[in-house]
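Support reply, case 0932

Customer input (verbatim):
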Amino acid sequence: MKNIPSFNEFKKYDHLLESSDDLLRKEFNELERLEISYNLNEGSALDSIKSSLSKFFLGPLSKTGMIDETRKIMIDLEIDLIEQKYSIEKEIENINDQISGLSRSSEKEKYTALVKDKESKIKQIETYIKSQRLKIKKCQEHIRNLIGKSERRREYYETGRAEDEITIAEFEYQLAKSEADSSEIRKYEEKIAAARKEAAEKAEKFEDDLKASSEIESEEPVERVDAEKEKKKVSSRKGSDIIKRKNDLQKEIIDLKSDLERKLKTLQKRIEKGNGKASVSYVNKMRIQLLELTSTLDAKVNLLNAFKELGGSEKEITSKVAKETEFSKLASKINSGIVDGQDANTGTKKIIGSIFSTNSKNGTGEVKIEKLKDAIKKIQ
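Our regenerated output:
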């Protein structure tokens, strides 16, 4: 029986699973296909995805499945272009050899015919190259439409495309091997080796990024502070209840700071592992989690300070909040403290917000590493 992916596996790849719409399917059907078909290399990351989810999810109607199919059409066009260009160039080279062996004076008619044949071949290859490149451009535009604003689908395509470059390099190598000299052959071999290295690195990075993003998503979301719940906890106006809430808040703040430090160090390791970079999608997800966490942290710090202002002893606190005006002030401070926790220009949230760049071409996908290290020191 075919294994059915678990929910966690499905969730891991949910950025890749959106179904394509009618317009995209129409665009796909309008792409010109060749009868030939070349075997594409598949990166290890793509193999892993397809093994986990199978074509049941990554099928022809999914955007990811359509990206794969468009890649196949595009590489058919590219390899056919290389093959036809190589073949016609060989014919032109042969004509040039024949022309060089003729005497213009004694074999004028044959010379003229060969020159015309050469010009015809040159025009033929120029027209063919232009036609194929237009088809390839249309495939590229279709892939851009499929990717849209999804960083994960872009990474998926680029991982597969890196493998396609190996196919192209190997095909060029096979064409040249029988006639090129040893130095030319070495160039092709070096090109294949470089393509293999790039593809392996992209496949490893893509799989690693998916795993990292999945780990972020698997964490329990931080519970937001609710003003009404907080007011209800001290609605008895008893000093003992308020002291208990102060003690609980102190513990909760310690736990939140510990969680914040852990996440920041995870982000730092991730960036260091990537030689100063991390994927845009990973950074954006981490940014959202960190800002949500700091909103809760800052709100609870504000609540703790509001309760501390009531005094230290149970008797003192009870006496103070027994007055309606004082309890109303406390309720107001609870409201404003939680609202202030959402403010990106104050507290811990300001420190964390400064870590992330909003000026990169990819939006918020960059991290200022020195600010990150400084933030870790500040919350310790």
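We compared this against your earlier run and they match. Two observations from our side: Residues 360-364 have pLDDT under 50 and may be disordered. Residues 229 and 274 are 43 Å apart (CA to CA). Please reopen the case if you see a mismatch on your end.
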